[in-house]
Structures are given as structure tokens and as C-alpha cells.
């Protein structure tokens, strides 16, 4: 976000907080029928919420959020799906092991989670780092994924990855280590605001309530260390993803969604390197944070694609 826009952003947030609550408020409220549990899998323990009935759908979040981001989508999908919403390894309320933040390992986390829940096949919906975990899961378990929706983030080593890395906005990919952890200790909100502001089309749409909620979770002991580890694994992820590509492209139907002011149609460009059946979706007036900035449009796009496969 440009410095001269900071005052306008603060004013927008203040206005948002006094406005009527929209239908898709960022309230993180899962219906009472959802049950939270801790599932041991692949050498760690994942916090997961499960609710609804019908064919299973697995929702994977990214950095700067937790599985809480999916509450509006979960409320919609639970009408005719069993909805599974984990916090990724090291994030949210899941355990923070010392290692295993490469996405190949986290793909195995997802396979183990589904095994523990006695779920065979799923539709897969992912965002940000969730895309990377989801791709690794799908590449290792191709027969278990019926349809795959990815939102607004690249895949290490896939397609224009090296060009994407040159974007100066992505300096955080190389930000980490003990000194960086000391820099952000006690300043987690400042660090995270940078993501929520710079990667939004309209920063005020990422509400103050959401910012407080996630900043509190990321300030928990070990949470920032685990978050940095997600990015530190990208070099290994690129090696692993190239090996997955060598085994062939994904064959299941894929919907690649980008925010109009973020990845836009580039999301589909990336996925055409990795999958044979790719549809493109662009959410208007949205940056990276699709579920916060344009929840109604995003939920409808996901719902329409999943319904087409029923």
C-alpha cells in the first residue's frame, strides 16, 4: 500500500465498522453442527472442523489467515456437502512441529487427515499457500480428487514461477530466520497489515475484526516461526513440484480463480502448465483476499463449479 493512501485506508476501516453487517460478515462463525477435533496425522496434529452431509469437500487456507476464513463458504456448502476445514501444519490451532513445512509433506498431512476421517474422495478448494499444499496432495493422490479449485497464488516451480519471484511485492518469500522473527515479535499486527493492505483491491474490506482475530492467532508462541517456515520451504517445493509435473499433468477438472486486481487470468495460465482441464475465473473488484473482499461472488463461483460436477 502506498504511504499516502494510509489515512484513506484507516478512514475506510472506520466507515466499515459503523456500516450495517452484510450477509457474509467476517464473523468466523461455523454452524453449531460443525464439530472441531484434533486429528493426529503424519507426525503432527491438525485442528479440523467438520460439518454438513453429502460428498466431501476439503478447504485449505493460506498465510495471513486460518481455516476460519472459510466460514461463509462452509455455511453454503454444508447444505449438500460434508465440509472439512483444517488449519494447516503450524498455523491456527494446529500443532507446530519443528519440520515438515514443505508442501509435499503437508500433502501427506491431508491424505492422513482424510484417512482418519474415513473419507476417500473429495472436491478440493484452496487459497494462497493452501494452493501449494493442495497441488502436492492432488499430485500424490490423483484418484482422490474429483474437482480442484485454486485461488490467487502461484505454485513453486510451475509455469512462470521464476518471473513471479521477481515481483518486488513478494519480498516476504525470502523474509525469515531468527533475526526476522525478533523484528516482528510483538509487532505481528504491523507485519500482517502489510499483506492485508498491499494485496487488497480495497483494504477496508479486510475488516478490523478480522485483523484482530488473525493477528492474535499469529502472535501465539511459535506461530510466526511456523509461518516463516512455510515460505522457507519454497525452494524444496519447486523441486518437488517439478517432479510431480514429470509424472504428468493433473486430469481432474480445475477452476483457477484470480482476483481482478491480483492474479486475475494469470491464475489459469499457471494451472495450464499443471493440469489438462482448466477453467478460468476472475472475481471483479477483488485483490488477493477473495473471501474477504468479494465473498458473495467467490462463494457463487465455487458453488457453480462444484455443482457442475454433481
What features would you highlight for this structure?
310 residues, alpha/beta, Rossmann fold, 8-stranded mixed sheet, 8 strands, 41% helix, globular, disordered N terminus
The percent of residues in helical segments reads 40-55%
In terms of per-residue confidence, which ranges show pLDDT below 50 for 5 or more consecutive residues? 1-25
Distance between the termini: 41 Å
Q: What is the average per-residue confidence, as pLDDT, rounded to a whole number? A: 91
List the strand order in the largest sheet.
1-2-4-3-5-6-7-8
Main CATH class: Alpha Beta
Global outline: globular
Secondary-structure element series: HEEEHEHEHEHHHHHHEHEHH
Q: Using DSSP, what is the number of strands?
A: 8
Name given to the CATH architecture: 3-Layer(aba) Sandwich
| Class of secondary structure makeup | alpha/beta
| Proportion of residues in extended strands | 15-25%
At CATH level 3, the topology is Rossmann fold
Question: Helical element count?
Answer: 13
> Major beta sheet, specifics?
8 strands, mixed
In CATH, the homologous superfamily goes by the name Alpha/Beta hydrolase fold, catalytic domain
How many structural domains are formed by the residues? Answer: 1
Work out the radius of gyration. Answer: 18 Å
Topology, pairings included?
Layout: H1 6-18, E1 35-41, E2 44-52, E3 56-60, H2 71-77, E4 82-86, H3 103-116, E5 122-127, H4 129-140, E6 145-151, H5 161-165, H6 178-184, H7 188-198, H8 208-218, H9 223-232, H10 234-246, E7 254-259, H11 266-272, E8 278-283, H12 290-293, H13 295-308
Parallel strand pairs: 3-4, 3-5, 5-6, 6-7, 7-8
Antiparallel strand pairs: 1-2, 2-4
Amino acid at each position: 500500500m502506498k504511504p499516502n493512501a494510509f489515512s484513506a485506508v484507516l478512514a475506510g476501516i472506520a466507515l466499515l465498522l459503523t456500516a450495517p453487517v452484510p450477509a457474509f460478515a467476517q464473523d468466523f462463525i461455523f454452524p453449531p453442527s460443525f464439530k472441531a477435533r484434533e486429528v493426529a496425522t503424519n507426525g503432527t496434529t491438525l485442528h479440523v472442523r467438520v460439518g454438513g452431509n453429502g460428498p466431501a469437500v476439503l478447504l485449505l487456507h493460506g498465510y495471513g489467515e486460518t481455516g476460519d476464513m472459510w466460514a461463509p463458504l462452509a455455511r453454503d456448502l454444508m447444505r449438500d456437502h460434508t465440509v472439512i476445514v483444517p488449519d494447516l501444519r503450524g498455523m491456527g490451532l494446529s500443532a507446530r512441529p519443528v519440520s515438515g513445512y514443505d508442501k509435499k509433506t503437508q500433502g501427506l498431512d491431508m491424505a492422513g487427515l482424510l484417512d482418519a476421517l474415513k473419507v476417500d474422495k473429495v472436491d478440493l478448494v484452496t487459497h494462497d499457500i493452501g494452493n501449494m499444499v493442495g497441488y502436492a496432495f492432488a499430485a500424490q493422490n490423483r484418484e482422490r480428487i474429483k474437482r480442484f479449485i485454486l485461488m490467487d497464488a502461484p505454485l513453486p516451480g510451475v509455469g512462470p514461477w521464476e518471473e513471479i519471484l521477481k515481483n518486488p511485492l513478494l519480498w516476504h518469500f525470502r523474509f525469515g530466520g531468527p533475526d526476522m522473527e525478533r523484528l516482528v515479535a510483538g509487532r505481528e499486527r504491523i507485519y500482517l497489515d502489510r499483506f492485508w493492505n498491499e494485496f487488497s483491491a480495497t483494504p477496508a474490506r479486510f475488516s478490523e475484526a478480522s485483523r484482530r482475530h488473525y493477528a492474535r492467532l499469529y502472535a501465539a508462541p511459535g506461530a510466526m516461526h511456523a509461518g516463516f517456515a512455510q515460505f522457507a520451504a519454497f525452494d524444496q517445493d519447486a523441486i518437488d513440484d517439478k517432479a510431480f509435473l514429470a509424472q504428468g499433468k493433473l486430469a481432474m477438472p480445475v477452476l483457477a480463480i484470480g482476483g481482478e486486481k491480483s492474479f486475475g487470468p494469470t491464475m489459469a495460465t499457471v494451472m495450464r502448465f499443471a493440469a489438462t482441464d482448466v477453467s478460468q475465473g476472475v472475481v471483479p473488484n477483488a485483490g488477493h483476499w477473495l473471501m474477504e473482499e468479494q465473498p458473495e461472488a467467490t462463494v457463487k463461483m465455487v458453488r457453480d463449479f462444484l455443482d457442475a460436477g454433481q
